């Protein structure tokens, strides 16, 4: 029954990967991994798994082992979707909220980094957010390439790992905010922002090596879990822990 539902809703081949939104991919990963992840991982554990994948990707880039890029992108994207699903965050519109076709620090596309004033924070982007609708992941990647055409592969990979650390810090603080009312009550939105930045840097890495992130994800998870080859993951924890 689960296989039938999976097939009907998420693998209709008439839907091209170039049309799938991040929300579509969140639904896909929820079907493959929700039960498995709920049984094995707390949110901090999911972030650790994301950190492992992102570090694997960074080491590959730094050491010139470019064959690591595609699996590193796919796995990092998958763990990012798992965290978003666990925290009930819909990333489709959040990407456009924080990157409404312009850089959030200079409100320009392409980005004019010389005009950035990080101390002043992000620009008021409300005028750019009018009439925006959820776009495909492919369109998100293209948009970010237009905003940041001068991204460098090594820098993008390093920034990815930095953003994963920021996700972990935001989650750590968020878990304590209920007992410490003096903390910023908007800290949960910080988790959202850092996850958006993670997706942004995954797109940046793909752009730097002229890869399509949607195609990589579809090729990796097109039959369900690439580990056990089943539409709903049944991998053991020991298998995941020893992977690679």
What is the element layout, followed by pairings?
Blueprint: H1 2-10, H2 22-40, H3 43-62, H4 69-86, H5 91-98, H6 137-147, H7 153-174, H8 187-208, H9 213-221, H10 237-242
Helix pairs in contact: 2-4, 3-4, 3-7, 4-8, 4-9, 5-8, 6-8, 7-8
Structural overview:
With about 240 residues, the chain is mostly helical. The chain has ten helices and no strands. It has one domain (about 1-10, about 20-115, about 125-240). The protein is globular.
Task: Give the distance, in angstroms, between the N- and C-terminal Cα atoms.
Answer: 32 Å
The percent range for strand residues is under 5%
Number of helices: 10
Low-confidence stretches: 1-14
C-alpha Rg (nearest Å): 18 Å
Overall pLDDT = 89
Question: Would you list the SSEs in sequence order as H and E?
Answer: HHHHHHHHHH
Share of helix among residues?
55-70%
Oligomer: single chain
Q: From the helix content, strand content and strand pairing, which structural class follows?
A: mainly alpha
In total, how many domains does the architecture comprise? 1
The largest β sheet comes out as: none
Summarize the structure.
With 244 residues, the chain is an all-alpha fold.
